[in-house]
Amino acid sequence: MEFGICFKGFVSPDRARNLVKQAEAAGFDYCWFYDSHILWRECYPAIAMCMEHTTRMRFAPCVTNPNARDWSMAASLFASLAKQSGGRFDIGLGRGDSSVRVMGKKPAPLARVAEFTHKVKAMVRGEEVIYGECPEPVKFPWADGYELPVHIGAYGPKALKTAGEVGDGVILQIGDTYLVEWLANQAIQAGKDADRDMSDYKVVVAAPAYFGDKETCIEATKWFPAMVGNHVADIVEKYGTDSGLVPKSLTDYIEKRKGYDYSKHGQSDNPYLDFITPDIVESFCVLGQPEDHVKKLRDLQKAGMTHFNIYLDNGDEENIIAQYGEHVIPSFRR
């Protein structure tokens, strides 16, 4: 199983360099960065910097979207980072949440997500591509055939179908064992129905991890279910509570949700946390002592997870990386 860490753009450059070096030495495989250019600093200069201080770790945005950049610019950026890192670059891709909604714009339709995946992968390989915003063909003469891995973030049935049909993996921003299995199976089945080979398909679970007593852990990570609830609310609005397409456990937990402040996206001081209960935090995150982390991750692995991506947004980052390197990762590498 793979392990990753994920940063927001407010981590200082010096600290980011030190954390990725520590994480690579501890056995982590990936470093992901939030791609939300208004709320935090642009992530790609930080990715390029961190690549220069590692030799094995792979890097990716978690997640970018089709509406943030011109597609040729996005493809050139991705291909350039892949080339200068020796092929250590993936992308996570979504419809667009904080990076576009904070500007009052709407997320991209799923058809646009699928088209972006096909067209950008083709440009990165070096193929000639025509896409909607550019009437003339685009071809990078310097491209060298790199096959860009694209992992698609999804919750709803149609997004999961898209992730299975066109993605190299699915990103599930939730750590609940039952829900991970329920969501991952939909993406994998969609890929099989499209006659794709899903044997190497990645199921990335992105969630906070924290060490300590229950009360301390819950207080540090209660921001996360609120962020998840923002996505779930979109699904419930689209499909309703009685469609059978959204589990009751999800619709129940956002029943008392009143709103969301994007200026506090992914932060513990977001004012809209009142509907979050301790049991939801425990369900959605990986908390407790090292043995608790190993047990929860074993259960998630059985549910289909192939990659655990830790949202390092709660403080105590150096200790979390150290604990995983000493006590958790070795349990999955024996």
TrEMBL record:
Secretion signal, residue range per the UniProt entry: none
Keyword Transmembrane helix found: no
Superkingdom per UniProt: Bacteria
UniProt-recorded Gene Ontology molecular function terms: oxidoreductase activity, acting on paired donors, with incorporation or reduction of molecular oxygen
The keyword Oxidoreductase appears for this protein: yes
Sorted UniProt keywords: Oxidoreductase
InterPro entries recorded: F420-G6PD/mer (IPR050564), F420_OxRdatse_CPS4043_pred (IPR022315), Luciferase-like_dom (IPR011251), Luciferase-like_sf (IPR036661)
UniProt name for this protein: TIGR03842 family LLM class F420-dependent oxidoreductase
Organism: Halomonas icarae
